C-alpha cells in the first residue's frame, strides 16, 4: 500500500494496540491474533503489535495494516521501543506496514540517533515510520528527523513528563496544530469519549490499547471501584 493511501485509510479511524507481555495471561501470537480479529470486527482500521511472532500472526489473521514495534531493554538506556537497528531489521523482515520507534530525546543504545535510524529504514524499505514522543519539543523534532507520523505514546513515561495528566489531550492538540506530519493520539485513552475528543482536537487517528485488550487491568479497575465503594458504605453504616 502506498504511503498516502495508508495514511488516508487511517484518517479518522481507530487503531487497536494488541500487546501482551510474557508475564500476562494473554501472551502469545495465537491469542493476540484472535484479539486483533475481534478488534477488526469492531471496526479497527489497523493494529499496533509488539514482536515479530505476534505481528506475523496478526497480519495473516486480519489482513489489516500493522504498526510494528519490538520492546527490548538495553543496559544504560531507558529507550525500549524499537531501540536499535537490530530491531529495525527484524521488523523490516516481517514486512510491517509501519515501524514504531522511540523518538524521545533520551539517549539510545549504541549511541544511535533518531535521524540515523530513520535514514537506515529509508535506505532499505518503503515502510512508514511512526515516532513515539513524550512532549511537544520531541514531536516537532521527530517530524524534522523524517518520520511519517508522530504518536503521543510516551507522554508521562519519560522522567521529564511524569507530571503530565493522561490522556495528554493538550499535547495532542498542540502537536496537531504545529506538526508537519500527522499526529496519532495514543496513551491511556480509556473511553470512547476521550478517543472522540482526541479526534476532534486534531488527531489524525487514535490508538487504544489497554482499555480494549488487557482484561486483567480492566477487571482491576472495576474491582478497585467496587472495593472503594464498599468501604465507603461500610463506614457510613458504622457512623449511623
Structure, described:
This protein has 10 helices and 8 strands. With 240 residues, it is of the alpha/beta class. It has one domain: Aldolase class I (TIM Barrel, Alpha-Beta Barrel), CATH 3.20.20. An 8-stranded parallel beta barrel has the order 1-2-3-4-5-6-7-8, surrounded by 7 helices. The longest helix has 25 residues. The protein is globular. The relative contact order is 0.13. The mean pLDDT is 96.
Q: Roughly what is the average pLDDT, rounded to an integer? A: 96
* Sheet with most strands: 8 strands, parallel, barrel
Write the CATH homologous superfamily. Answer: Aldolase class I
Question: Which class of secondary structure composition applies to the elements?
Answer: alpha/beta
Spell out the helices and strands N to C. HEHEHEHEHEHEHEHEHH
User: How many alpha or pi helices?
Assistant: 10
Report strand %: 5-15%
CATH fold-level label: TIM Barrel
Return the domain count.
1
CATH architecture: Alpha-Beta Barrel
Helix content: 40-55%
Rg value: 19 Å
Number of strand elements: 8
Write out the strand line-up for the largest beta sheet, numbering strands in chain order.
1-2-3-4-5-6-7-8
- Termini separation: 67 Å
Principal-axes shape call: globular
Low-confidence stretches: none
Pathway: Amino-sugar metabolism; N-acetylneuraminate degradation; D-fructose 6-phosphate from N-acetylneuraminate: step 3/5
Enzyme class: isomerase
Keywords: Carbohydrate metabolism, Isomerase
GO molecular function, one term: N-acylglucosamine-6-phosphate 2-epimerase activity
